[in-house]
Amino acid sequence: MICAQVQQALGDALRALTRAAASGNGGGLPVMDLKSELCLTALDTARALDRRAQLAAQRGVLGCAACAELSEQYALVRAERMLRHQQEKLQHELSDASLSVSD
User: Fold this and answer.
1) Contact indicator for 98, 92 with CB cutoff of 8 Å
2) Cβ contact 29:15 at 8 Å
3) Which of 5, 23, 31, 102 is the most exposed place for a label (fewest CB within 10 A)?
4) What is the pLDDT of residues 5-58, one digit of tens each?
């Protein structure tokens, strides 16, 4: 038999999840306000936490955050940039600029 406190906690958790899913933030849990939860008073830390909260709120708006192929696409873009950089380096080595000798 489940005690009343556990039943209450489960009910609260289910209601919170339902509210989170209905709020449109991707079904995730609400972001904690660490500044008030941890009673932080350092100004730099408070500003950093505010900025973190802003970025977390904006993350749900980005379409790519939910893309299952994001890591694969990132790897392809990175490989393309590395090949482009290598190509530019080789072109310079073969150009007249690299043949000039500076004594």
Assistant:
1) yes
2) no
3) 102
4) 777 777 777 777 777 666 655 545 555 666 566 666 677 777 887 888 888 777
Q: Quick check: helix, strand or coil at residue 11?
A: helix
Query: Which amino acid does the sequence have at 34?
Result: L
CA–CA separation, 78 and 74 (whole Å)? 6
Residue type, 13: A
Per-domain residue ranges for the chain? Answer: 1-30, 31-66, 68-98
Q: How far is the C-alpha of 99 from the C-alpha of 35, rounded, in Å? A: 60
Closest by Cα among 17, 49, 40 to 30: 17
Alpha carbon 49 to chain centroid, angstroms: 15
